[in-house]
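I'd like us to work through together how a protein chain folds, taking it slowly. We need material for that, and I hope you will provide a protein of your own picking. Go ahead whenever you are ready, and we will take it from there:
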Amino acid sequence: MTLRHGFTTGTAAAAAAKAATLRLLTGRAQDSVEVPLPVGQRMTITILESRVDGEGIMAAVVKDGGDDPDVTHRAVIRARVRRGVGDGVVLRGGAGVGVVTRPGLPVPVGMPAINPVPRQQITLAVTEAMAAACGMNEKVSLEVEISVDRGEELAQKTFNPRLGIIGGISILGTRGTVKPFSNAAYQATIRQCLDVMQACGARTPCLTTGGRSERFLRQARPRTPETACVQVADFFAYSMKEVGRRGFDSVLWGVFFGKLVKQAQGHRYTHARSAELDLTILAGWCADCGFDRHVCQKVAGGNTAMQALELLAPLPQSATLFALLTDKAAAAARLFCGREVGVDYMLFDFSGQILHQTSEAA
């Protein structure tokens, strides 16, 4: 089966801006427009609506995530274009587009969260429309305001509040298209979160595999600010590589048992579809820690990490096992980091109880 590609919020904004510009300068509404993509290709985008709006024209596009839908899939991206003073294109952020309030992002503090590549894409699309409508010699100045319906509501389902982007979503996209089931967007989020941490002076990134493990970590360490945490999902090796690139000296992981075992086994990416949990290896480590032979056999023949944990946690040897697992996981983390770095762990059960924590995490 062929998966359908979509397009980014940057491409949606560029199409809306081009359609609004063409109507403003020619008087003709567009059913669709062709826009340039950052990778050098072009894409034809359907226009949802185009109408007079005060002294300008408002056009809208429905963002399409293809077969990899995210929070912004089906979001309505708008561009309001009106004549300005002088010549050239002035780009602004409107309702539903976030404003950057913290350093460390590719957009300066105080500016709308329209990333540099989409900003160039929007400007180029508008410039194309100006040239088509007026010719290359006529000087035209246009003000372009990008807005997003329900943008502030949508942003609450993203990492924007944590990154210090308030009031709406970001206009993003380095390729212009959305590649189905790509990990690129999540990896970009990890990088941005680490950049913000560094810019805000955080010394020890707190990495968790999801929202629940982060919540438990911050409950256990109530003085940990939200900006010091990033949910890295299954990107074990990638996250540690990015930690190393930024020169952090220490890191704290908040994890559950199954992910810890996979990290201890050295899996670069810990999702179930690409990193099968080998309970026979875990059973061997249980034997090394002094568990009874029958317990080890049950672990080896088990189905899930949760089943193994329910068997192992009540037994006195579990403390030795948890220490062994965190030691092995920390060694793998340092290997992926590419430099010597302090790696600590907080291991939780699903109720939030701390099963084990290494010395610096305590």
In short: The two ends are 50 Å apart (CA to CA). The chain is about 40% helix and 20% strand. Residues 190-361 form one domain. The longest strand covers residues 76-83.
